[in-house]
């Protein structure tokens, strides 16, 4: 390349104009502005009533019950899902078949149907008893005293969500290279120690994103328990607008609080994923530095 050719090369690269992107962005901003203007200018939204009920005592109590229900149901689902995933990975055919049948059953039955069945369980079994096989009855109690509205909601959500959590955990366990297990077995590790120290820490990188998404889904799914008169967020709003006929503002209140819960969980998900990806990020940085050093040495 001659000196003249070198001088003809531009000193900086001018990016290509992206008029289509700017036009699309402007249209989106215009659409959002018009939608917000229409919503706030429409008196049928009844924004004063929205502000009046947003922090009302009954709505906040329903919000607390929604959070409690989601936390309890998700905790039980994680425990049951982990056990089911282990059973699915077991070489024992009985455990494998039982876990597979459980996952198939509770993924197939709609949650609404499951909640109604549990709520009306007393029609099938008026009493729940525990007895010695072919022996005396140890104790008996009425089903309605055990399966209350809250009990039916928690059990129904836990049964339903644990089937999905089991598949999430199983996918995470399968993602770990089989050579890691073979190396742990060669060192004489037990199955429990190998899972706890070798497999599970690596599987968590694949488990955490879908599991946190499932938690967000559980928070929203708690609204379904309103069909069995569980006084969570949606049912608390329904009780109010059944009396005042202010349906739209109260539904907007419910929507607002679900948006807040989802936003909080989204931020928490970001930090949890960042924590579990620290090792991978560190390895990538180390590899990049090493490759850069080798490249510089080769160029000398």
Given as residue ranges, the uncertain stretches (5+ residues, pLDDT < 50) are 281-288
Terminal CA distance reads: 22 Å
Helix vs. strand class? mainly alpha
Strand portion, in percent?
under 5%
How are the strands of the largest sheet arranged? Answer: 1-2
Helix residue percentage: over 70%
Q: What does the largest sheet look like?
A: 2 strands, antiparallel
Write down the overall mean pLDDT.
83
H/E element string? Answer: HHHHHHEEHHHHHHH
Number of helices, where a helix is a run of at least 4 consecutive DSSP H or I residues = 13
Tell me, what's the shape? flat
Kindly summarize this structure in a few lines.
The chain is mainly alpha-helical. It is 77% helix and 4% strand.
Summary tags:
mainly alpha; 2 strands; 300 residues; two-stranded antiparallel sheet; 77% helix; 13 helices
Protein described:
- This protein is flat.
- The protein is built from 13 helices and two strands, in the order H-H-H-H-H-H-E-E-H-H-H-H-H-H-H.
- The chain has a two-stranded antiparallel ribbon.
- The model is unreliable at 281-288 (pLDDT under 50).
- The protein starts with a helix and ends with a helix.
- It has helices at 3-8, 19-41, 47-54, 57-89, 93-108, 111-119, 143-146, 149-175, 178-186, 191-221, 233-244, 247-276, 278-299; strands at 127-131, 137-142.
- It is mainly alpha-helical and 300 residues long.
